[in-house]
Specification:
Elements: H1 4-18, H2 25-49, E1 55-56, H3 61-87, H4 93-118, H5 125-152, H6 156-179, E2 188-189, H7 196-199, E3 206-207, E4 212-213, E5 220-221, E6 225-227, H8 232-244, E7 249-252, E8 267-270, E9 277-281, E10 286-290, H9 295-304, E11 307-308, H10 320-326, E12 342-348, E13 354-358, H11 366-369, E14 378-385, E15 387-388, E16 391-400, H12 401-406, H13 408-413, E17 417-422, E18 428-437, E19 446-448, E20 451-452, H14 453-475, H15 480-491, E21 498-501, H16 502-506, E22 518-526, H17 530-545, E23 555-560, E24 575-583, H18 589-602, E25 606-607, H19 617-621, H20 627-637, H21 646-652, E26 680-681
Parallel strand pairs: 6-8, 7-8
Antiparallel strand pairs: 1-2, 3-6, 4-5, 9-10, 9-26, 10-14, 11-15, 12-13, 12-14, 16-18, 16-21, 17-18, 17-23, 19-20, 22-24, 22-25, 23-24
Length: about 675
C-alpha cells in the first residue's frame, strides 16, 4: 500500500518548487551544487588548456549554429529573469538567485566549450555533468511550474512567462546534450607569423606550435616549424630552406593516419592551401590538381565536367596527395587503390626543384611514386586518369557471417564493388553492393515527414547511433553484444535500392562521422586466405571476451585488385583488407591489437602503414618484396634522407651501400598522351 504521507510531502514540495513567488531554499541549494562544480573544475580545466594552441580546422556549420543559438538563448534568459525578478518582483529572492546562478553557470560553460572547441579538444567530464544536471533540473522545474499553475490558479500571462523561461532553460540543455558527442577535426596548430628576418625571403608565414595531432588525438608531434604554402614557389622555397638548415621535412594531409608516418620534430608542411585545379582534359578524361585538394572537392569539380573516378576511398575530407602517397582504396575486385589512377606526379625533390614522373617521363619510377609514403619528395600535383561519369546502384542488407564466408568468392566476382561490416559478437553482417547502372538517379527518399532517409540511415544510424554504442560500451562493456544484436537486427532495416552518382555512393559513409576516438589497424590479406583469416579473427575476438575486453566498433572488410606499386599492400596479389577499430582508454586495447598483428602476419598479411601496426624492422620489411627497388629510386631523389622520420627509417631500412637491384621494368601504360590534347584551363 502506498504511503499517503510520503505522497503528500512530495506533492507539497513540488508545489513549492513550482511557485516562483514562494521562498524555496532547497531550490537554491539544488542549483548551487552543480554551479560550484562547473566553476571550480572549469577554472582548473581552463588553466590546463591555456597553453594549448588554437587550431585551423574545418568548422562545422551545425556546431557554430548550436554555439550561437546557446549564446542567444542565454542573453534572452538574462533579460527575462531580470525583468520579472527585479522590475516586476514576480520572483522570490530564492528563485531569482537560483536563476541568476544558472545563467552565470551556462555562460561560463559556453565559454569553456568554446575554448575546448577552438583547440579541437574533447569535452571535459565537468561539462558533461553540467549538461545532464541542467537538463534534469530544467525538466523538473517545468513540470513543477505546470502543476503549480493548474492547482493555484495563477494568471495565464504569469504562468506563460514562467513556462517560457524554463522552456528556454530546457532548450539550452537539449542543445548542449546534442553537442555532447563533440566534433571531429583535422587540426593544424598555428600561431601569429614571426618576423620576416626569421622566416626567410620567399617563404610563407612560419608557424610554431606546441603540438600537432591527428584527427582523433591518438598521434601527436611537436615540429620545429609548420609551413602552409599557397603557391609552388613558396613550396619550393620551404624545401630549399629545410635543406639548407639540414632539417627533416614531412607533409601532413588531413590527419586521417593512425600511425606516426607524418610526424616530425623538424619541418612540417601542410598543403591545405595548394588545392587548386590546374587543368582538365575532357578528351582524354584526365585531370591535374594540386595535392592539397580534398576528395570531396575533387569530385565536385569532376562532376561539373561529367567525369568520375572508378573507385574512391570513403573519406571525403582526405587530401588527394595523402590518399595517393598512402595507397588509399575503396572496395571492388575489378579496381585497385586510388594510386592506380595516377598517370603523372609532380614532386618537389630535396633540392627544391620540380621533378615529373609520368607514363612518358621517368617511367621507371612511376611504380615507386604512386605509393611513396612521402619519402621521395613533396607531391605538388597529381594527374589522374578518370572516365565518363556513371551512376551506381546501391543495395544494402543484413546477412549472416557464415553465408558471407561461404559465398565470398562469388560475391566479390559478381559485383563491381562490395564491402562488409561485421558487428562483433553477432553473426550479423551489413553487406553493401554497388553496381554500375544506366538507370537515372532515384529521388531522395523520406524516412518520415520531417527527415530524409539518407540522413536517417547515413548520419543517424551509421554515425550517431554507433557513437552512442561506443560510449555505452565503455561504461558497460558486457552490454556490447546485446547492443550490437539490437542494432543489426532491429534498427538496420533498409528499403529499396538507391541509384546515385558514383562519388556520392563512394563517399556516403565516412568513419570519421563516428564521434568517438579509436585506434585503427588495417591489414591486407591475400584473397585466397580471406575466409580462414576472418574465421580466425572471430575466434580471436571471442577469446578476449574472457579477459573482459569487448570490441565496440564494426569490422570492415573490403577487396581490391592487385597493383604494381612497390609499397602497396596489394602489390601483385588480389587483396582483402580487414580493418579493426578499438575504442580508446581500455588497458587491453594495445595488447589486443598487438596480438592481432601477429595473427595477420601468420596469414602473410601486409600492414597498411597509415594505420596502427606493431611489427618492426626486418620482419616488417618482408611485407614489401620490392623494397630494394623502391630504395634505389629513393637514393636518387632523396640522397640526404631529408623526407624521413624514425617511422619511415624503420619501415624502409638503411640506404647505405646497397646491392644494386635488377633493372626496373617500365610500368604499364594507364593513359595515352598526345600533343593535341584539349586542355581546359581553370
Amino acid at each position: 500500500m502506498a504511503n499517503p504521507l510520503g505522497i503528500s510531502i512530495c506533492h507539497s514540495t513540488l508545489l513549492k518548487y513550482g511557485d516562483a513567488a514562494r521562498p524555496c531554499v532547497e531550490e537554491t541549494v539544488a542549483y548551487s551544487v552543480p554551479f560550484g562544480i562547473i566553476m571550480v573544475f572549469g577554472i582548473v580545466r581552463l588553466r590546463q588548456i591555456a597553453d594549448y594552441p588554437d587550431v585551423i580546422m574545418p568548422r562545422s556549420v551545425l556546431q557554430s549554429v548550436r554555439m550561437c543559438g546557446s549564446t542567444f538563448i542565454i542573453g534572452i534568459l538574462a533579460v527575462l529573469v531580470l525583468y520579472h525578478g527585479i522590475i516586476h518582483h514576480n520572483l522570490s529572492p530564492y528563485v531569482l538567485a537560483s536563476q541568476c546562478i544558472t545563467i552565470v553557470g551556462w555562460l561560463f560553460a559556453t565559454i569553456l566549450l568554446s575554448k575546448e572547441h577552438s583547440r579541437a579538444l574533447s569535452q571535459s567530464w565537468v561539462l558533461r555533468v553540467w549538461w545532464i544536471a541542467q537538463l534534469l533540473l530544467a525538466g523538473l522545474k517545468l513540470h513543477a511550474i505546470t502543476c503549480a499553475g493548474q492547482l493555484t490558479h495563477q494568471s495565464a500571462s504569469s504562468l506563460l512567462e514562467l513556462v517560457m523561461i524554463n522552456t528556454l532553460f530546457l532548450l539550452l540543455g537539449v542543445l548542449a546534450f546534442v553537442n555532447m558527442t563533440g566534433s571531429t577535426y583535422a587540426p593544424v596548430s598555428t600561431i601569429v607569423p614571426e618576423c620576416e628576418e626569421e622566416v626567410g625571403v620567399g617563404l610563407p608565414p612560419k608557424m610554431r606550435l606546441r603540438e600537432c595531432v591527428n584527427w582523433c588525438g591518438t598521434v601527436s608531434c611537436s615540429p620545429k616549424a609548420v609551413y602552409s604554402p599557397s603557391t609552388l614557389t613558396e613550396l619550393q622555397n620551404v624545401v630549399k630552406h629545410a635543406a639548407k638548415n639540414k632539417s627533416k621535412l614531412r607533409v601532413r594531409g588531413s590527419g586521417t593516419s593512425s600511425s606516426q608516418i607524418w610526424c616530425t620534430n623538424g619541418v612540417l608542411v601542410s598543403l591545405e592551401h595548394l588545392d587548386k585545379v590546374i587543368y582538365v582534359d575532357k578528351r582524354r578524361s584526365t585531370v591535374q590538381v594540386e595535392a592539397g585538394i580534398t576528395m570531396g572537392n575533387l569530385n565536385s569539380v569532376l562532376h561539373e565536367f561529367a567525369m568520375g573516378i572508378p573507385s574512391l576511398p570513403p573519406i571525403a575530407s582526405q587530401t588527394l596527395g595523402g590518399a595517393v602517397a598512402m595507397g588509399a582504396h575503396g572496395s571492388g575486385l575489378q579496381h585497385g587503390c586510388i594510386s592506380d589512377q595516377v598517370v603523372a606526379v609532380d614532386l618537389v625533390t630535396c633540392d627544391g626543384e620540380l621533378f615529373r614522373v609520368s607514363s612518358t617521363e621517368n617511367t621507371e619510377m612511376i611504380n615507386a611514386v604512386r605509393v611513396s609514403l612521402g619519402a621521395l619528395g613533396v607531391i605538388y600535383s597529381v594527374t589522374l586518369q578518370c572516365e565518363h561519369s556513371f551512376n551506381l546502384k546501391c543495395e544494402e542488407r543484413i546477412t549472416e557471417l557464415d553465408e558471407v564466408l561461404m559465398n565470398c568468392d562469388e560475391l566479390v566476382q559478381h559485383n563491381d564493388h562490395v564491402e562488409f561490416e561485421w558487428f562483433p559478437f553477432t553473426s550479423a553482417v551489413l553487406m553493401r553492393q554497388l553496381n554500375r547502372t544506366q538507370v537515372a538517379t532515384t529521388k531522395p527518399r523520406r524516412f518520415c515527414c520531417c527527415m530524409s532517409a539518407d540522413w536517417y540511415y547515413g548520419t543517424f544510424l551509421r554515425s550517431k547511433v554507433v557513437s552512442w554504442i561506443v560510449w555505452a560500451g565503455k561504461l558497460i562493456p558486457s552490454m556490447v553484444p546485446s547492443m550490437w544484436h539490437f542494432y543489426a537486427r532491429k534498427l538496420l532495416r533498409f528499403s529499396k535500392p538507391t541509384v546515385k552518382p558514383s562519388d556520392r555512393q563512394f563517399l556516403a559513409y565516412d568513419v570519421r562521422g563516428i564521434k568517438a576516438g579509436f585506434h585503427e589497424m588495417e591489414y591486407a590479406i591475400a584473397l585466397p586466405d580471406a575466409r580462414p583469416a576472418v574465421a580466425e579473427l572471430r575466434r580471436y575476438i571471442e577469446q578476449h571476451v574472457l579477459q573482459g575486453y569487448y570490441i565496440t566498433l564494426p569490422i570492415t572488410i573490403r577487396f581490391t585488385a592487385m597493383n604494381h606499386s612497390y609499397l602497396s599492400p596489394a602489390y601483385m596479389r588480389p587483396t582483402c583488407y580487414i580493418t579493426v577499430r578499438t575504442h580508446l582508454g581500455h588497458p587491453v586495447s594495445t595488447s589486443f591489437l598487438r596480438g592481432l598483428g601477429e595473427l595477420w602476419h601468420r596469414f602473410g598479411g601486409r600492414p597498411s602503414v597509415a594505420s596502427l601496426y606493431f611489427v618492426r624492422g626486418p620482419q616488417l620489411r618482408l611485407s614489401f618484396p620490392e623494397l630494394d627497388r623502391f630504395n634505389t629510386i629513393r637514393r636518387k631523389l632523396d640522397p640526404n634522407q631529408m623526407f624521413t622520420n624514425d617511422h619511415i627509417d624503420d619501415l624502409l631500412g638503411p640506404m647505405d651501400d646497397p646491392e644494386e637491384p635488377a633493372a626496373i621494368p617500365p610500368p604499364s601504360q594507364n593513359a595515352v598522351f598526345d600533343d593535341d590534347m584539349e586542355k581546359y584551363e581553370i
